[in-house]
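Exercise 3.2. Students should predict the tertiary structure of the chain below and write it as structure tokens, then compare their answer with the key that follows.

Predict this chain's 3D structure.
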Amino acid sequence: MMLQSLIWCSNCEKQVHACRKSKDCGERQVEVREMEDLILDCELNWHKASEGLTDYSFYRVWRNNSETLMSKGKEPTLTKPMVGQEDEGTYRCELGSVKGGLATVIHFHVAVLPPNTEEVPSINTETQGAMAPGKMTANFPQSPTTVQDTMSQLPKSEKMLRACLIGLLIGALVALIAVVVTA
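Answer key:
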């Protein structure tokens, strides 16, 4: 049984009352890509306003209807990192109450999709000649005369890395000078 604090306007006193709602809060269909994190969220908007609730328990429900407790505690979410096809199936979340019963039960039907196969653009914006699969190349200028010449010929991500490194070097140099001056 779940309890909620309510203020009755007739006497303006706060009292705890039993909430008479169904414990079964339905089923959720969840899709996650292979090698990504599965996150099951059992929290409903009224949980924080309620009293007499204890722990969230997450179970893996197997095909033969046996169950394995995966997590129990105050956290309303279960995170399973880097899922695989073996993680596909049914999960159940329960929120307990101080009177020993259940306040909420949610079933999750998890489908694990194939990994995302979108091509990730390489650092190389133009290739010269044949290149082995999975290899990346960077085309640097043959003989840069200044840092600006080098920066203008690099791809954007390398420009950002180089700018960060230059900033770090300048910061370290300033810190070193400050230490030497104050010593």
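Discussion points: The helical segments are 147-153, 156-182. The radius of gyration is 29 Å.
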